Amino acid sequence: MGDCSDAVWRHLRTTASHTIGLSYLTELLNVAPVRASVDDYAELVIEDNVLGRATESGRRRVYRHLREVYSLDVGCLPFRAMRDLWGEDSQSRPLLAGLLAFSRDEFLRASFSAVRDCNSGELVTPGDLAHAVGMVFPQVLSPATLAKVGRNTASSWQQIGHLSGKSGKVRTRAQIRPAATAYALFLGHLSGVRGTLLLNTPWTALLDTSVEHVRFMAEDASRLGYLELRSAGGVDELEFSHLMRGDEGRDR
After folding, report:
1. Which residues, other chains included, contact 14 with Cβ-Cβ below 8 Å and sequence gap of 6+?
2. Rounded distance between C-alpha atoms, residue 34 and residue 28, angstroms
3. Which of 40, 122, 129, 144 sits a CA distance of 20 to 30 A from 241?
4. Residue ranges with strand state E in 111-186
């Protein structure tokens, strides 16, 4: 189950059984208040059945998976920041969700090398992704489970925007926009990275672009108020007062 730790890297393995469920997350956030509590989300999914599941067990299962992948707890900075940016730009939502899922699911993280190392248009198979996970977690998963991880991570990367296609998935480039850029930089900040180094972290790698373009998008994000970018003597400083603020507008 998800928890309210502000630790950025989590070690959940939801993709061993399910994808990141972007469509469910989108449906849920469409109806949930911005500051909905964990209990509010549970009520929406289980009691109100806003996701249209046929049985109570199905409703509880999808709620559990969304909690694991996204936390759904505004007391957690990674989720709260994503929730704040979610309403800013609908086109950034796949990457926003993917960045948070990448932080929390270690199988999704392990599979990324198979995606990252391919050029646009190249075929990426579930077997490629399963192999990448198996290299990071040798002799941990049975062949059947590893194959399922390959299928689930393939679908997840397609939902995020790094793959496309049905019968055979090919590498595509994710759509980078200021909101997703700000979130990738923010997650790096929460992990302890500072200054210019924030432009080149595991999270900015998901943005599918050069360090130079990340900085260009960071300038746009700064103009939009998602972060504060200052440069002095060739050294960048980034602050995140908007995303770090408390629920009542207090910094913390």
Report:
1. 20, 65, 68, 69, 104, 105, 107
2. 11
3. 40
4. 163-164, 170-171
